[in-house]
């Protein structure tokens, strides 16, 4: 697999690398700060020291500046310097000019709306669609496509009465062209304004995924998530009962490496009978920027992302309870994210969370993580 190269001056590239490394170090430092603040042990850092550690949003702004540097630098296969308008036009036309380089050669034909075909056919190992469009992973929204990936994410939430950080491990595994499985387990640290900090394991969840519709520009899948009460209900770390959450996920290719995704479903408490509706939508734009590490050939072999692939995402996460005291009161947040392919099988990503309406005292939040592609 060959890809168009984005060239920059050596000074600009070195500056970008330094900013990237500092931003990632800031993310690690912010995780350390939050972990120490919420540790159940008696060892706690003085507030005056905590306030001097970098804020998690430093990671977000650092990566944003790095992405802008990629766009505003030197572009094109000939290495000639171009203006900002020319760079944007080159980005818009890039998939059309080079998209054939990313079309998987061993992709089987789509089965369309058939409900009887390809249930036991092997999954084609690819992170691109048949037309060569990147299949981008969002932060909360469950995708309609299958994959073999490991996610390690850390999310921080700042509310009026408490701050919390959640570390989550998730694995997605495709068994066939139409059948996959997702499993995830979180661990949460909570630091309330009043009272002692505590932490613990959250609810373990598994979600079989079944692809219902498969075309070149549209996918539709059924998710059947089941969450088990492994987290403490008294501490607010778990639901205290089995939660069943069926949902439909869709993916649409708009062209120009711009894609949209959606997820609509419900969540039901099997003991309490409580239920709520969830609705999520996302928009992603991908382009190839400068690679920090060279390609090792694994991308072409497994149709992985090339090093330097950048995806900008905007995501809406909403829910409306159907029972209980909060019945009919909707809450929603917007998640603005960026994913960068360090190597052909390792991505790093960061996002900033902004409340939209009825945020339950949510001030803001952030997400940082890694994706490993098998």
Structure description:
The protein has a single domain, classed as monomeric porin ompg (Porin). The protein is 18% helix and 41% strand. Strand 2 and strand 3 form a beta hairpin. Helix 1 runs antiparallel to helix 3. 32% of the residues are buried.
SSE order and pairing:
Elements: H1 10-37, H2 47-50, H3 57-72, H4 84-98, E1 149-159, E2 162-174, E3 179-192, E4 198-201, E5 204-214, E6 218-228, E7 243-255, E8 258-269, E9 275-288, H5 298-302, E10 309-321, E11 331-343, E12 346-357, E13 362-373
Antiparallel strand pairs: 1-2, 1-13, 2-3, 3-4, 3-5, 5-6, 6-7, 7-8, 8-9, 9-10, 10-11, 11-12, 12-13
Brief overview:
The protein is α+β, with helices and mostly antiparallel strands and 374 residues long.
What is the beta-strand fraction?
35-45%
Report the CATH C-level class.
Answer: Mainly Beta
What are the segments in which pLDDT stays under 50 over at least 5 consecutive residues?
Answer: 1-8, 34-58, 71-84
Q: Would you count the extended β strands for me?
A: 13
* CATH structural architecture: Beta Barrel
Helix % is 10-25%
Overall outline: globular
Q: Radius of gyration from the CA trace?
A: 21 Å
Observed structural traits:
twelve-stranded antiparallel barrel, disordered N terminus, 374 residues, 18% helix, alpha+beta, Porin, single chain, 13 strands
């Amino acid at each position: 697999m060959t890809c168009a190269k984005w060239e920059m001056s050596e000074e600009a590239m070195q500056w970008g690398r330094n900013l990237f490394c500092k931003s990632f170090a800031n993310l690690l430092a912010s995780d350390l700060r939050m972990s120490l603040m919420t540790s159940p042990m008696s060892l706690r850092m003085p507030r005056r020291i905590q306030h001097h550690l970098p804020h998690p949003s430093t990671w977000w702004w650092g990566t944003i500046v790095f992405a802008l540097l990629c766009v505003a630098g030197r572009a094109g296969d000939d290495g000639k310097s171009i203006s900002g308008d020319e760079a944007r036009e080159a980005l818009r036309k890039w998939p059309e000019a080079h998209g054939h380089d990313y079309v998987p050669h061993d992709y089987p034909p789509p089965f369309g709306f058939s409900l009887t075909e390809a249930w036991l056919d092997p999954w084609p190992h690819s992170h691109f669609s048949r037309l060569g469009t990147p299949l981008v992973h969002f932060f909360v929204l469950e995708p309609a496509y299958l994959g073999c990936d490991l996610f390690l994410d850390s999310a921080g939430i700042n509310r009026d009465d408490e701050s919390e950080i959640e570390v989550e491990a998730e694995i997605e595994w495709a068994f066939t062209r139409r059948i996959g499985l997702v499993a995830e387990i979180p661990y949460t640290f909570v630091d309330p304004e009043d009272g002692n900090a505590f932490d613990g394991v959250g609810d373990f969840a598994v979600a079989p995924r079944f692809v219902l519709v498969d075309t070149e520009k549209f996918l539709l899948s059924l998710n059947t998530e089941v969450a088990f009460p492994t987290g403490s209900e008294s501490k607010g770390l778990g639901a205290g009962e089995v939660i069943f959450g069926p949902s439909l996920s869709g993916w649409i290719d708009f062209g120009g490496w711009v894609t949209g995704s959606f997820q609509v479903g419900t969540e039901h408490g099997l003991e309490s009978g409580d239920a709520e509706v969830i609705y999520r939508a996302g928009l992603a734009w991908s382009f190839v920027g400068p690679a920090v590490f060279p390609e090792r050939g694994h991308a072409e072999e497994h149709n992985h992302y090339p090093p330097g692939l950048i995806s900008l995402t905007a995501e809406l996460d909403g829910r409306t309870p159907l029972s209980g005291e909060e019945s009919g009161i909707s809450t929603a947040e917007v998640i603005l994210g960026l994913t960068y392919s360090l190597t052909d099988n390792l991505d790093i990503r960061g996002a900033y969370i902004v409340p939209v309406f009825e945020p339950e005292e949510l001030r803001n939040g952030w997400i940082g993580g890694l994706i490993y592609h098998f």
